[in-house]
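Handoff note, outgoing to incoming analyst
You'll be picking up this chain. Sequence as last confirmed:
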Amino acid sequence: MIHRRISALVALAALAGLAACGRGEPPGEVRSSDVWASREGLGADQFVLIEPGTFEMGSTNGDADEVPVHTVNITKAFWLQKTEVTQGQWQAVMGTNPSHFKDCGDACPVEYVSWDDAQAFIAELNQANPGASYRLPTEAEWEHAARAGTTGDYGGTGVLEEMGWYRDNAGEKTHPVGQKAANAWGLYDMHGNVWEWVADWHGPYPSGTVNDPTGPATGSARVMRGGSWYISAYFARSAVRDRYSPSYRLISFGFRLARTP
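Most recent structure output, in case you need it:
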């Protein structure tokens, strides 16, 4: 059952204003028939439409599971949340707050959540908003969005200090979302703050061109992307892959939502 608490919704309204400030409506068409969880702070103004495109996935200057670098075609547009899911948004949907850094506030990313926890949140959100299609992004969708047309280690300005919170500047804690520079597609905190669960099982990359990959059919570990407040710059690169059991939680684990148009 959705718990809509007044204090959480007030904080979410403030966050919505921050996220929309200076950028107007999300690009693309928001159809009148679309169902959005606006009452939970997850309306259309919190998302960016990521257009189809082609990019080179992986890196030759990283870990062994980042190669081979291969061409990926994203053939379908999708919506991606501008920020990581916040503590306020989690509270509005689940009525609880699992985060270690509760004192950081409602505008900070929810953390200490497993992949299974993220799926439970999504199921609750979609059940409360029949017709909605919130989900986790695939690993390829995530890297396409993080790169936002770039080819280097970091998206946006290419300077991690400007783009995200990591070991050298975070002060051993999370920070409110949206404080660092957005990338070229209007996405915040794609590097650092909290690791972000994606949909895929971890597995080796293919060697040829692929369309809309979704990873292996089965596995033992789910992929995480983006790095966190806890780790070095190396692990905040666009191509970095980490993986954990889907039931595992840490105080640096979070996620952001995608949805199908």
